[in-house]
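Usage example:
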Amino acid sequence: DQQVKQNSPSLSVQEGRISILNCDYTNSMFDYFLWYKKYPAEGPTFLISISSIKDKNEDGRFTVFLNKSAKHLSLHIVPSQPGDSAVYFCAASINSGYALNFGKGTSLLVTP
Amino acid sequence: DADVTQTPRNRITKTGKRIMLECSQTKGHDRMYWYRQDPGLGLRLIYYSFDVKDINKGEISDGYSVSRQAQAKFSLSLESAIPNQTALYFCATEAGTGRDQPQHFGDGTRLSIL
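Running the assembly step on the lines above writes:
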């Protein structure tokens, strides 16, 4: 069973607007959540993370929000840039430092 | 130079062959992982190692074996390759010190088994 779900396979956003990528999880034991970005022919690159003791973490244009009661997290990118076009994976783990459970990814296209 | 290097980057081979995928890292991390990615799916864990003497099975270890030759090297072997092992394989490392450390990935090995 997929414990981390990204229900939107793709998203298209205009440059300068906000991109919102969503992720849901089913395992209430997850306490560490990450977003990775992946370009073609490259490995996933760590983008931002959040611990379950927080509900928001911000790094420049990227903000991750965690809603534990809903078992939902989201990644906001503002303003979106064409270079943000990539596949974004949501991942979660228990006790950090263990195996990551990945979603299927959302392909973001930022158009000029 | 990449911190996590995977070789080869691409490999085409035949059913029944033994294949080894190699991963080396210069990050000095204790923890290393092997994942596979299939089209339209997220990454799934095959094996992981927290130090040289530690090997653990992941979600999909059947048909695979690993060797942690040194802190910096973690190899994945397919003893007798089959077509449904055609996938993109990623190695990752993690510091393992303190909480909330992200994993760092290599650029992957694209493996095709005919």
